[in-house]
Structures are given as structure tokens and as C-alpha cells.
Amino acid sequence: MMAVIGLAGLLASGKGELAEKLKAEGYICIRLSQFIEEELRSKGMPATRENLIILGNQLRAEHGNDVLARKAFEKIKLNPDNKYVIDGIRDPAEAKYLKTNSENFILIAVSASKETRLKRALERKRDADPQAERQLIEAEARDRGIGIDECVQMADFVINNENKNLQELCDDLNTILIKLHIKRPGWDEYFLNITRAIAQRATCDRGMAGCVIVRDKKILSTGYVGAPAVCRTAMKLGISSGSR
Q: Which of 15, 160, 170, 185 is a good FRET partner for 40, with 20 to 30 A between their CA atoms?
């Protein structure tokens, strides 16, 4: 089975943006709430936030707290050679089920302050998002009642999405994927990593930096910051570089 990445986090923390990024990279996205939405449609009911909460609680009470995770895993088993991202993990029973049944499951949590999340929710203007601080607090209380804080504690990785733009958030995800050998670094990242290693040879006391000169994805030369040879000789002799 290929990689299965789970995403957890409070409303407007940024987990949805990571799900979209992974979708663009070929992951099949499964939102746990989609199973509740499907059930509502079958009953002829609108998928409002209130209806989602009521039916979600009802499904958990009747079929167990991991019911949505089990539904997601049934879909994964139909095509196990694909890559999957599971968005909206809120109940620790969901995380436990996926960790137990998928050896390649990785849980990533995304965190941000209440102020930051409220600002994002107001800016993106989604119908289901809270439009006031009171509504955000109520939504948080419901998610915390389900157990989302425990899900964050169970996470293999936690991304702090405070004061970050979308690119910085995605860079944090890329770092995790590369560390797990789920994703190969792109050429730019590959050469930048080499410059970081080269920079460790730097001798300048004002800063350490390295560089590579590349053409057609081949390294032509490398270099690092250092004091001129005459300065290093003067230092060895105990002569001030300003002496004449």
C-alpha cells in the first residue's frame, strides 16, 4: 500500500490547503465529512454545519467513534496502490484505527492561534466558516469535545502555521515528505541542500554561506564565504588586518 497521510487541526488552521497541495501532486483526497454529506443527501437533507454535526454524532453513537475512518479505509483498500490524503481527522478513535490498519499511515497536525484562524476564516469567506469570534469558539468547542486535541498529540508531525504564507506552509510539508522518503526533492531544493553543506566550510566570521554554479542540472563549481588569504596569514601572525 502506498502512503496514507492524515491531516488534523482546528478550523482554518491550514489543513485544507495541505490537502489541496497533495491532491495536486497525485494524492486521492478523502474528507471524512464526505461520508456524512453522502448520508445527508440520501435522506434529502442539506449539508449544513448543524446537520453535519448532528448526523456525525449519531453515526458515532450507533456505529462506533471510528466509523468514518473505517469508511475511508474501505475506499483505500479498493485501490491500495494509490496515494491518499485523509482530511478532517477529529476523533482519536479515527487516528487509532488508521494507525493500526495502515502501516504506511502518517498523521500530520496543523496548528495556529485562534486570532490567526479567525482572520483566515473571515478572509476566505466560506459559507461554512464562522463569521464571528463567538462562532469560532463554538466550533472549536465541538471539535475539542470530539477529541481533536488528542489527535494533535497523537500526530507524527505538527506544523506550526502561525504567520506563514501558503508557500511556507507547503515547504514545511515538503520537508516532512522528503524526510520520510515519500517525496524526492526537486532540482532547486537538491542544489540548495548542497549549498548548505558547502557553507559549513566557510571561514568568514560575519556569516557562513555556500554556493554552486549549475548548468543543465550539472554542478560546474562550488564555493563558500571566506576571508582573503592575506587576511588569514595576518591572523596567524597576529597582525591586525588594518595594519600597513
A: 15
